[in-house]
Amino acid sequence: MCIMSESPSTPTTRVVYQANQPMLQSVQNVRNMLHHTVRQHIGKKVQVQNIDGQVWEGVIISADRGILYLQVTPMHGYPEPRALFGPTILPLVLYELLVITLLM
C-alpha cells in the first residue's frame, strides 16, 4: 500500500491511496485464477466464505469482471428468496473470497 500526500495531476486533486505494483499484480492474479475456477462450476451448489467470515450458500449463476454472482438459498437467518419477489442474487468480489466449497 502506498499513501501519497501530493498528486502529480492538478493542484485541486490529491491522491490519498494508490496500490503499489506488486500488490496490484497479486490481486489481478488471484482474481484471474478465481474467475477461471468459478466459471468451471457455474450451475453448481456451493458454500462461500469471504475474508470477513461471512458465509453464503447458493448456486453459482455467473462470474464476470471480478464478481461472482451467487443465487442464495435460505441460511443463517436469510429470508426465503421467493419472499423477495424472485431469486436473490448476491454479487461477491472474487478477491475477497476465502473458501468456495462444492456441495452435493
UniProtKB/TrEMBL annotation:
<protein>
    <submittedName>
        <fullName>Uncharacterized protein</fullName>
    </submittedName>
</protein>
